[in-house]
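hey can u check if this looks right to u? its 174 residues, i copy pasted from the old doc so theres a chance i mangled smth
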Amino acid sequence: MDQQSTDEQDPFDGVQDLIEQLQGGTAQTGELVQAAEKINFDKSQLEQFILDNQGTLIKDSVDVLQIMKQYVAAAPNAEDIGSFAELLKATSTAIDNLTKLHTSNQRVDTQVKIKQMDIDAKKEINVDNNMLKLVGTREEMFKKMLEDSVIVEAEVSDVDTSKSQPDSSLELPE
């Protein structure tokens, strides 16, 4: 019994387990650092990575906020309330950033559509203007005018203007 009581009180019993856990944790941390260094994104992959991870972060933060809200309401203390406020601020900022990214993408898409509409309208105007324009040399235009002209028959008569006298009944005001 004396042997067991000394074993139970031996402070170095768990030291080897603790050392193994710390060494294992260091190895895992090294693997994570190496994995993070290997990440190399192009633009579309980076955007998708940000959207996926920010969405997950926001969802997890909201879940933790719900839990902390109940915890702080049950037994409030200054540290818990400060932590809750910081988490709430971080979550709000993340949501705001995601909203700004979404709004920016929508603005870019709208600008592209508007520019395409402008280009299409200008093309249509140019096509209409080109249809109305006649293109050709002076001789071609003259020939076309002669072909399209209509011959009008008219009688020409001489009118003697010396015999006609002005009407005296009309007086001009002075």
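The chain has five helices and no strands.
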